[in-house]
Specification:
The complex is a heterodimer. By secondary structure, chain A is α/β, with parallel strands linked by helices. Chain A has helices spanning 21-35, 55-58, 71-81, 93-99, 101-110, 155-162, 175-187, 201-207, 213-222, 230-234, 252-263, and strands spanning 43-47, 62-65, 86-92, 115-120, 123-124, 130-131, 166-171, 192-197, 224-226, 239-246. Chain A has one domain: Rossmann fold (3-Layer(aba) Sandwich), CATH 3.40.50. By secondary structure, chain B is an alpha+beta fold. Chain B has a single domain, classed as Alpha-Beta Plaits. Chain B has two helices and four strands. The chains are: A alpha/beta, B alpha+beta. Chain A binds chain B through residues 3-4, 7, 12-14, 16-24, 26-28, 30-31, 172-173, 175-176, 179, 212-214, 217-218, and chain B through 13-14, 16-20, 23-24, 51, 53-60, 62. The complex binds iron/sulfur cluster (3 copies).
């Protein structure tokens, strides 16, 4: 199918700012779905609130645009009712780890078969540039004009410790590997988390004098390194990207199905 | 079998002139025109890597297969 077949063209051009990384995530998510030859009607996209969450309005799957931070809760409900569907849950960093932090760790702990795509731009874009749990110490935001004093989460570490069975990180610069990682995450049976470093030139970029969208993407190129690389040992500041965990572990809906069978006396 | 070449076009209705395609094209094929929209200025230099299409945040670069002699 053509890329246009996956979008609701009536809403294009989309609302995201020029150069916003969310568009690149949407672009490559479509490519991953296309490469996997998944049918649109077998996919449910569930999003919460934020610039990132707008993605569910643009894509022509079954889509559910829910409450801030609660996308995983709704997605859990959909998956429990219709386990045969593939559920994609795009979230922003604030959406996933602040407002929805509890839903996030518990979805990971249960290892329920959902694909969480966390677009980490380190700020709340839609509401005007407030700092998020990913902004990081010393970074500027509308609500931290003198520099943020909060330490940042590491989304991949958080997901791994909480029990996610697939955890990866990529960036908007690395489009080709983003597509491959998304394909694997979508096909993985269990809770998969893909953190995507994505630029918000309008707020995070401007507040922190990071330049244009192009400059921010260049920084993803120079500031990251493949997981396990030598470069990381020499420069610990580099952010690792790639697949951190990919394991086969008991999945929640399957386990639940087994309990039903037990209760019904089917052995 | 040789992979068919693809020809790219810019949908200027959707392009927001971010310059990402211009900056990252390995062959300098793209440029922004006077109305700040992407334009394919050196089509003969295109090596068909497809990266401009994948990195465009606005899905504004499209391609189709072409017959090559
Ligand atoms: S405010 Fe930031 S995240 Fe929101 S659309 Fe603009 S660039 Fe993207
Ligand atoms: S990347 Fe897309 S939106 Fe940006 S200038 Fe190129 S065609 Fe336009
Ligand atoms: S396909 Fe590659 S070489 Fe051709 S215009 Fe796009 S980025 Fe440049």
């Amino acid at each position: 199918m053509a890329i246009r077949d996956y979008i609701r063209e009536r809403f294009m051009p989309h609302i995201w700012c020029p150069g916003c990384g969310h568009g690149i995530v949407m672009n490559n998510l479509i490519r991953a779905v296309e490469n996997l030859e998944l049918r649109k009607r077998d996919i449910v996209m569930v999003s919460g609130i934020g610039c990132s969450a707008r993605i569910s309005g643009y894509l022509d799957f079954h889509t559910l645009h829910t409450l801030h931070g609660r996308a995983l809760a709704f997605a859990t409900g959909v998956k429990m009712a219709r386990p045969e569907l593939r559920i994609l849950v795009p979230m922003g960093d604030g959406d996933a780890t602040a407002i929805g932090g509890n839903h996030f760790i518990h979805a990971a702990r249960r290892n329920i078969d959902l694909t969480a795509v966390i677009m980490n731009n380190r700020i709340y874009g839609m509401t005007g540039g407030q700092y998020s749990p990913l902004s990081g110490r010393g970074k500027a935001a509308t609500t931290a004009p003198l520099g943020n004093i909060d330490q940042a989460f590491d989304i991949a570490d958080l997901a791994m410790s909480a029990g996610a069975s697939f955890v990866a990180r990529t960036t908007t610069y690395h489009a080709v590997s983003m597509i491959k990682i998304l394909e694997k995450a979508i096909m993985h049976k269990g809770f998969s988390v893909v953190e995507i470093l994505t630029q918000c030139p309008t707020y995070f970029g401007r507040k922190n004098r990071l330049g244009s969208a192009v400059d921010m993407m260049k920084a993803y190129k120079t500031g990251t390194t493949p997981v396990g690389s030598e470069a990381k040992k020499e420069d610990p500041e580099l952010i690792e990207r790639g697949i951190f965990v990919e394991e086969d572990r008991p999945e929640y809906c399957t386990e639940y199905e087994n309990i039903i069978k037990k209760a019904m006396g089917v052995h | 079998m040789k992979k068919k070449k693809r020809k790219r076009t810019v949908n200027i209705e959707w392009c927001k002139g971010c310059g990402i395609c211009v900056a990252f094209c390995p062959k300098g094929v793209m440029d922004l025109d006077e109305s700040e929209k992407a334009a394919i200025v050196r089509p003969d230099d295109c090596v068909d890597c497809g990266l401009c299409e994948l990195r465009c945040p606005d899905l504004a670069i499209e391609s189709e297969e072409i017959d090559t002699p």
